[in-house]
Amino acid sequence: xxxxxxxxxxxxxxxxxxxxxxxxxxxxxxxxxxxxxxxxxxxxxxxxxxxxxxxxxxxxxxxxxxxxxxxxxxxxxxxxxxxxxxxxxxxxxxxxxxxxxxxxxxxxxxxxxxxxxxxxxxxxxxxxxxxxxxxxxxxxxxxxxxxxxxxxxxxxxxxxxxxxxxxxxxxxxxxxxxxxxxxxxxxxxxxxxxxxxxxxxxxxxxxxxxxxxxxxxxxxxxxxxxxxxxxxxxxxxxxxxxxxxxxxxxxxxxxxxxxxxxxxxxxxxxxxxxxxxxxxxxxxxxxxxxxxxxxxxx
Length: 298
Fold this sequence. Notes:
By secondary structure, this protein is α/β, with parallel strands linked by helices.
């Protein structure tokens, strides 16, 4: 895999500074303008505040970039008809010289190739409600590539119980940060219990190191969203149910489902889910940087 490194990321690799991978589908498809600009700034600033270097990833004109300059980031936050690029789409994007944001799966693959072992995102994909075979490729990618994903759980619009069960089937450890309950993206509680918990970044780094040394795949660290902007579980479930019904009525399918549902949640909660999303993205990036610093390049 041929990767193109930004000047900042290339310098970090030479000087062995810790790096944190960031996905960009959240900028290109996940958040509306100008909130996507705010998300990019907040996440990158949080990573730098903790002593690491942010490495947002994207495909620009068919080239795989690790680290983006200002012009490339602007293209992703303001561009039209950008491709949503998962792991399975990388070869298509390269062959067609396409431009787009990378999802969790593609970012995991590129991060692994770049030797970056810590990745921050908002929420991972998972098993959708209804059709048990409608499953995000994020889960298979996390199982395959040795990258630790720091997130606020899987997105609230998904079937969280089945998603957790499938991660177990794929032998992906799911570890709560300061909790033994799976967060629900917008909400801190789901009622779903986790087997493992860590309470500090150095312990998380040791788990990543052990999994890498065993030549196993990736793992998931789940960090509850900030209390100040988190929503109650009952409120989230009510709006998710209504949004799912509308998506079915409109016959929205495939990659379009999650962006539609997230947009509906913003409307139905009068912007509360948008504020929660921005806060948890920054929170996850900050904690991922702490893990990356503890992990180092060893």
